[in-house]
Amino acid sequence: MSLPNDEALQKRLTKLRIHEEDLEEEFIRGSGPGGQKINKTSSTVVLRHVPSGLEVRCQRERSQVMNRYWARMELCDRMEAAVSEAKMALQNEREKARRQNRPRPRGLKNRILKTKKNRSGVKKNRGRVSGDD
């Protein structure tokens, strides 16, 4: 594949550690409008990244070469999204742990103690009613 943006694509692939030997490429006939041309040519690309299990199907262009390029671009986009999603999940987990472990504010402590004392008083006042009138 020699396209104008081929160099940029190769940089993205190496940055994401996607190797050509990890990709399975299949060419199938497309679906949708196009009549006889689309029914005869196998220009649709199905690209699978075996280690991650991601699969991309591209039939954007009439050319198989261009569809191969766009399928790789789409695969890069999906991998970047998955990586950033994993980073966000890890960051959210850290933030949650930090929030759970921080000490309670003074006002909240006082409110909890006040509620406990009030509850204790309510329970203390419970008791048997004496039969003495």
TrEMBL record:
Which Gene3D superfamilies does UniProt cross-reference here?
3.30.160.20
The record's annotation in SUPFAM superfamilies points to: Release factor (SSF75620)
Domain named Prokaryotic-type class I peptide chain release factors: which ranges? 16-126
Per UniProt, the ranges with Basic residues bias are 99-127
Tell me the keywords, alphabetical order: Transit peptide
In alphabetical order, the GO MF annotations are: translation release factor activity
Q: Looking at the record, which segments are called Disordered?
A: 87-133
Short name of one Pfam family: RF-1
Which family does the record assign? Answer: Belongs to the prokaryotic/mitochondrial release factor family.
Q: Mind telling me what this protein is named? A: Protein subunit release factor B
Which organism encodes this protein? Answer: Prosthecobacter dejongeii
